[in-house]
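Replying to the earlier thread about multi-chain prediction with a worked example.

Input:
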Amino acid sequence: MNDDNKYIGIEGVEQRFKTAKGSFLALRDVNLNVAKGEFITLIGHSGCGKSTLLNLIAGLTTPTQGVLLCANREIKGPGPERAVVFQNHSLLPWLTCHENVHLAVERVFAATENKAQLKARTEAALALVGLTPAAQKRPGEISGGMKQRVGIARALSMEPKVLLMDEPFGALDALTRAKLQDELLAIVQKTRSTVVMVTHDVDEAVLLSDRIVMLTNGPAATIGEVLAVDIPRPRNRVELAEDPVYVHARKAVIDFLYTRQAHVEKAAA
Amino acid sequence: MVSAVFHSPLEAKPVMAAAKVAAPARPLPPAAAVESAPRAARDWRAVWLRLLPPVLGFALLVLVWELVALRSTTGFPSPLATWQQALTVFSDPFYSKGPNDQGVGWNVLSSLQRVALGFGLAAAVGIPAGFAIGRFEFLSRMFNPLISLLRPVSPLAWLPIGLLVFKGANPAAIWTIFICSIWPMIINTAVGVQRVPGDYMNVARVLDLSEWKIFTRILFPAVLPYMLTGVRLAVGTAWLVIVAAEMLTGGVGIGFWVWDEWNNLNVANIIIAIFVIGIVGLVLEFALIRIATAFTFEEVKS
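Result:
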């Protein structure tokens, strides 16, 4: 298989957690290949192990079985080549936006570039997400959407091989979310990043993804179905609303989530 | 009209209502003057409600004190007698007639000096120790049993050890301050390190930051509020302990002064000393709370 088609390789991955009640099987038998430059979303009900899978790719946790590869090398721990945008932005509140991004830039490029270049990189990353005016503000002084954008700027500033996003827009209101999704589409178009994103929003998944990876319900979740979204880019959310491919993809995901994997809701009701 | 404001909050209310009705009728500058009246009324009411309870509290204290003094057959001084004695004591706080007879100012200063030394040493040892214990599981398991064992020991139990090892009253008192103020700083700092949000540590792991960067950019700022709480508790304990320690060791110091006045049966001076100790403790506490708030970030507080 071509290396570019298997940029991230997930082979026979199983994840168990030790809990007070004994071992808990979160994921089993997960196999997935992500091509270079591909945009993948992981979707499923809460508790199905989407974030667990993302953390495994990030290297924040190690699988109990199986192997994860990135660019043909085993993922043994977290690293700046696989940048993570956290669900709750995780900016350091005592640093300004500029300093938050600079911390990442410094780590990756300080060995090869001088101070002016590092500063320029930081400023460019903030400009990319449209936050140049807020550069000297602390996270406590800006809105949730802006914080999330700083988080994205921090991740992008490292020029990562892979961008991992854990429900990055989950905590935002619908309008801000739509705006950031459009910005993300434009940025990814420009940087050609490989992206793996966790979401529980069907529209977001269809709008952004090349392929949607649908997980079955946990515990012992696995990949239930992979749906390719053959909509050419650049994509426009207004035009897509009536696009038959979009509508079909959307229906397929909803069908998977609410018809075939609906027992969570039934149990709760 | 404005004078009505000063009568009582109840009377001021109708005035406020009247002013609101009257204001639109008078559009020129006098209207502004009328509008300021109800605002002043509200301010005065707020001030009154804030001041009254503490004043009542102190009045109650003085009343009980006066009753105890009236019924006392052993010469318990009345509030007024104590006040007069206080005026004499504070008229010359920095006199010095030999090592055993010095003004209250010198006594407070030498106590503060001991506290500063003992506490400073405790901070220099305790805060780094707290960081190390919080950061490394191994050290935490190694030292937690020791801390649990030694922390509940009464500070004064350490005094004989100090006297034995340092062969002097002054270093023994400092040692006692050191040992009793080190625990809150170690424990709070360690807890602070262990409670650094996992997300921040994940950021550190994803960025693969060096241990030094983790310390300066993440651990230290995140732990600072916890650490300052530890410092505040430690200063409070130190100030509690110094009085007791000085009673036993003698020399110059506010604790010794209390004991000396007891031997002279000068109860008024003991009461003055109690107030001085309380006020100094309050000032120390207040200063540290101010420092702590200045260094606490919004998102850390929640």
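The interface with chain A takes residues 197, 199-200, 202-203, 205-209, 213, 217-218, 221-222, 297-300 of chain B (CB under 8 Å).

Feel free to reuse this layout for your own posts.
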